[in-house]
Amino acid sequence: MIVTAKILQGEGKKLVVLPDKDISRYLAQKRPSRVEIRLNDGRTISADQRKKIFAIIRDIAIWSGDDPESIRQLLTWDFCGRSGREWFSLSDTDMTTAKSFINYLIEFCFHWSVPTKDSLLNQTDDISKYLYLCLANRRCAICNKPAEVHHVDRIGMGRDREQIVHVGLNAVALCRAHHDEAHCREKDLFEEYHIYGIKLDKYLCDRLNLRTE
Fold it and tell me: What is the pLDDT of residues 79-96, one digit of tens each?
């Protein structure tokens, strides 16, 4: 069950909310013990976010052979179903929803190997999430070609990569060419493209066949 609510009071880690509709019957029947909180700060989608969304949808439409408007409606419907959001309009949705939708579109392109006119690095609105998706899908964070794992935290010479626990190490996904370049000038390369290493968690390690224990 998904409902919106008004925040009545917030202090520290405590939050008091008033649901927009009566949920007492649902609470009595289901007795839920946890909720999902999605905060809306009131800011509406920016022109830059809208531009990025339409650019990615255009690339998906060219790849699929369908018209962009049909693709937009289909992907919006799928995104809402997966995220539990209500249908929204790109004319006035909030910035948080727009950011999540861009992440969804980027993940879609990675999953289906959709060719894009520009690197999705230039389309992302959430660089940390983008770098995470690049690792999860083995796509170069710079050019989106098939990628390898570049360890930002040096493993060290003489140490067996197969025996090292990778959880917690910082890494970034780079294609062979950019991986070689990173070994020569990592700091300058990262500053040029505004990328950085992110911590590998168990999910990423499992996806990348890296040791977790």
Answer: 999 998 999 999 999 999
CB within 8 Å of 56: residues ≥ 6 apart:
102, 105, 106, 109, 116, 120, 123
Element containing residue 103 per DSSP (H, E): helix 95-112
For 46-96, the DSSP string reads PHHHHHHHHHHHHHHHHHHTS-HHHHHHHHHHHHHHHHTPPP--TTT-BHH
Residue 84: which of 35, 137, 132, 134 has the closest Cα? 35
Contacts with 68 (C-beta within 8 Å, 6 or more apart), sequence order: 54, 57, 58, 61
Using DSSP, state whether 184 is helix, strand or coil: helix
pTM for this entry: 0.78
- CA 94 to the chain's CA centroid: 17
